[in-house]
Amino acid sequence: MRGWQLHELGQPQDVLRFEEQPDPRPAAGQVLVRVLASPVNFPDVLLCRGEYQLKPSLPFTPGVELCGEVVEVGDEVTGLTPGDRVVGGADLPAGGFAEFALMEAKRTFPAPRALSDAEAGSLFIGYQTGWFGLHRRAGIQPGETLLVHAAAGGVGSAAIQLGKAAGATVIGVVGGAGKAAVARELGADVVVDRHEEDFVDVVKSHTGGRGADVVYDPVGGDTYTRSTKCIAFEGRILIIGFAGGTIPTPGLNHALIKNYSIVGLHWGLYNDRDPQAVRRAHDDLSRLADEGAIRPLVSERVSLEGLADGVQRVGDGETVGRVVYAAE
């Protein structure tokens, strides 16, 4: 089969190699799928750089989530048969940036019929992260105000849609007029171009000085620090990631004085610690997709051969929504 592999670590454009590889074979508990679509996630960028918490042995094929058609099932796999259209996480080192990939059966779910291959392939990580962050960790309630950073990106766009589906007022923060238009299209009630406005002032203005009840922060650094200036009494700041490159060191005295919570989310842990909750979240997300309440924003479809450039551009922060390899 054809696919991308890493033989060394570095910037995606420098280290990804497109080459012929042996077809993978499923072991016990795995399924082999023909890749129908695989989106670029920021963890794919970190995997290339060697900066992700998961560090597969070289060489390996990135592509951490996908939509695929089951080709073969390994021993001990039940409930999945060849021909099934599925979504979920790839089982590295045989990731989704190739013609075929491996998936753990326990992390493989039916693809929602309402979504295209490219949309379905983008449902697992970003929307599961948003669902667990907003509902399980932050306990968002109808009528609350949700502040979403990097609102035009992969996880941010999911958070906007899930926040609206939960009945929240959503304020999205983006960088640039083009991304602002995307955030509005996604349903954000208020959009802040951080190049033109101070989101702290905007949040205070639109909440009568009360602040945001929930902050969804995949950026970190100064974005986190500034968010503490506009968090509401008993608000919750969700720590999703550090795409900005700097891990903040919060002043816990400030959290004490203002009565807000700093809430971490490592969504991947739920796959092992509470897999039934992951399955329930998938069922709820599928329902929302069928109802038209959520739809992954696929801004760009690329060929398999064009994936490396897409990975680099995601790493450089030049994209909106999802960049997806789609087989057709």
From TrEMBL:
Molecular-function GO terms, alphabetical: quinone reductase (NADPH) activity; zinc ion binding
Record-linked PROSITE patterns: QOR_ZETA_CRYSTAL
Alphabetized UniProt keyword annotations: Oxidoreductase
Matching Pfam families: ADH_N (PF08240), ADH_zinc_N (PF00107)
Organism expressing this protein natively: Halosaccharopolyspora lacisalsi
Domain Enoyl reductase (ER): 10-325
Protein known as: NADPH2:quinone reductase
Keyword match Oxidoreductase: yes
E.C. numbers: 1.6.5.5
